[in-house]
Design goal:
This is tRNA/rRNA methyltransferase SpoU type domain-containing protein. Strand 10, helix 7 and strand 11 form a beta-alpha-beta unit. The chain is of the alpha/beta class. Helix 2 (75-85) crosses helix 3 (87-93), helix 6 (208-220) packs parallel to helix 7 and helix 6 (208-220) packs parallel to helix 11 (338-348). The chain folds into two domains: 31-170, Ribosomal protein L30/S12 (60s Ribosomal Protein L30, Chain: A, 2-Layer Sandwich); 179-348, 3-Layer(aba) Sandwich (Alpha/beta knot), CATH 3.40.1280.10. It has helices at residues 27-30, 75-85, 87-93, 101-115, 148-155, 208-220, 238-244, 258-268, 292-297, 316-321, 338-348, and strands at 37-40, 58-61, 68-69, 95-99, 121-127, 143-146, 165-170, 175-177, 198-203, 225-228, 253-255, 271-275, 287-289, 303-308, 323-326.
Length: 355
C-alpha cells in the first residue's frame, strides 16, 4: 500500500454541529468596528437567549458595580454561555470566550509585541479564591470573581482544576467574513492578508480540534493566513480555540467561497496544491509526492495548500483545479489524520525553511 495524507478521521459525522460556522453577513469582520452600544444588565433582569441575532452592534455588559457572580442563572453568565455555544450569536455580538490562562496570555503577548495594541478584553473571569495567573497580572482589565459552578458552566469542561482564567474578548480584526460579499468585482483581496506567499485553505473541515490544530501549525510554521471555504466549522468554537492555543487570534483568517479564492489566486498568481492520498485506484490526473526537492522547487512561488474534510476528503472542485500531492509513507496505511498530514505539509512547504 502506498502513502497517503489527511482526510480519514473515522468518527466525524457529515452533519454539521450546531456551532458550525453560520453566515451572519460580514459582521465577523466588521462587528469590532461598529459603534458599541452598552446595555447594562442588572443581575435580576431576565436576558432572553433564544438564538436570534439581535442588534449586531449591541454590546452586552455588566453594571460597573458588579465584581462577583455566584449563580449560573445570572443573565450575563447566560449571555456568555450563549457566546460559547452559538456561532451566530458570538459573531453577531463580536465577542468570544477564551478558556485558559495559556491561550489568553499568548494572545495578549502576540498583540502587544507584534501589533503594538492593547488586547480588547471585556472582562477576565477568575475563581473567587484564585490568584491572578502569572503573566496576566499587568493586564489592565476588569476582573469578575465567579463560583466553581459558574467557572465550570462557562468553561464547558468537566474539571475546572486546570482552568485558571476565562476571558471575554472581542473577535479580532484579522478575521474577515466574505460569505455575503457578492460583488466580487469590487472586492480588494490585497486587504485580506498582510502577505499572500503561503495561505492554508481548508475545505469543509468540520472537526474543531482539527481546524484549531491546523491553524496553530500554520502560525508555528510562519504561514501568512488561513482561508476557510464553505462547510468549515467556526474557528472561534471553544474546542477550536483550545486546539489552536490562541492562534485563531494571531493568524489572519478569511472565510469565503471559491470565487473569492480564485480572485486571490489570480491577484497573486498563486499555485494551488491539494493534499490527497495516493492509492492504486486510477485517478483522472497524477498525484505528486511531497519531497525535499518538491518543496525547494516551490520556495519562491506563492501557493495555496488545500486540505479536505475528515470524512470525505477534497471536494470535487478542489480535485479538479489543484495539483494533487501525497505524503510518502513506508508503512502500509492508507491515510493520515488531516491535522497530522497538514502539519507535515505546512512544515515542508513553509517559507524560508532553510532547506
Amino acid at each position: 500500500m502506498h502513502c497517503g495524507c489527511a482526510f480519514a478521521s473515522p468518527a466525524v459525522s457529515p452533519r454539521l454541529p450546531f456551532d458550525t460556522k453560520i453566515s451572519v453577513s460580514k459582521l465577523r469582520a466588521s462587528s469590532a468596528h461598529l459603534p458599541r452600544t452598552q446595555i447594562q444588565i442588572n443581575p435580576s433582569d431576565d436576558l432572553t437567549i433564544d438564538g436570534s441575532d439581535k442588534s449586531p452592534a449591541t454590546r452586552v455588559s455588566l453594571p460597573s458595580h458588579v465584581n462577583s457572580i455566584t449563580s449560573t442563572s445570572n443573565p450575563f453568565i447566560k449571555h456568555c454561555l450563549k457566546l460559547r455555544q452559538s456561532s451566530s450569536y458570538r459573531h453577531a455580538h463580536g465577542s468570544v470566550l477564551v478558556v485558559g490562562d495559556i491561550p489568553i496570555r499568548e494572545v495578549c503577548m502576540f498583540q502587544a509585541n507584534k501589533q503594538g495594541i492593547t488586547t480588547d478584553i471585556d472582562c477576565l473571569f477568575l475563581h473567587e479564591e484564585a490568584q491572578i495567573p502569572q503573566g496576566l497580572e499587568r493586564l489592565s482589565v476588569r476582573i469578575v470573581r465567579v463560583s466553581s459552578l459558574v467557572m465550570k458552566k462557562l468553561s464547558g469542561v468537566q474539571s475546572t482544576e486546570s482552568v485558571e482564567a476565562i476571558a471575554l474578548m472581542r473577535i479580532p480584526y484579522s478575521f474577515i467574513d466574505l460569505e455575503d460579499d457578492e460583488d466580487i468585482i469590487t472586492t480588494d483581496c490585497n486587504k485580506w492578508f498582510p502577505s499572500a506567499h503561503r495561505v492554508l485553505v481548508l475545505d469543509r473541515i468540520q472537526d474543531p480540534g482539527n481546524l484549531g490544530t491546523l491553524i496553530r501549525s500554520a502560525m508555528a510554521f510562519n504561514w501568512d493566513g488561513a482561508f476557510l471555504l464553505p462547510g468549515c466549522c467556526d474557528p472561534f468554537n471553544d474546542k477550536a480555540l483550545r486546539a489552536s492555543r490562541g492562534a485563531c487570534f494571531q493568524l489572519p483568517i478569511v472565510s469565503g467561497n471559491w470565487n473569492h479564492l480564485k480572485l486571490l489566486e489570480h491577484e497573486f498568481q498563486m499555485k494551488l496544491l491539494a493534499g490527497h492520498p495516493e492509492t492504486t485506484t486510477q485517478k483522472p490526473k497524477p498525484v505528486s509526492k511531497l519531497s525535499l526537492e518538491f518543496a525547494q522547487s516551490l520556495a519562491e512561488k506563492p501557493l495555496c495548500l488545500i486540505l479536505g474534510s475528515e470524512g470525505h476528503g477534497l471536494s470535487e472542485q478542489s480535485r479538479q483545479v489543484c495539483e494533487l500531492v501525497s505524503i510518502p509513507m513506508a508503512g502500509e496505511f492508507e491515510s493520515l489524520n488531516v491535522s497530522v498530514a497538514g502539519g507535515i505539509f505546512l512544515f515542508m512547504l513553509q517559507p524560508c525553511s532553510g532547506f
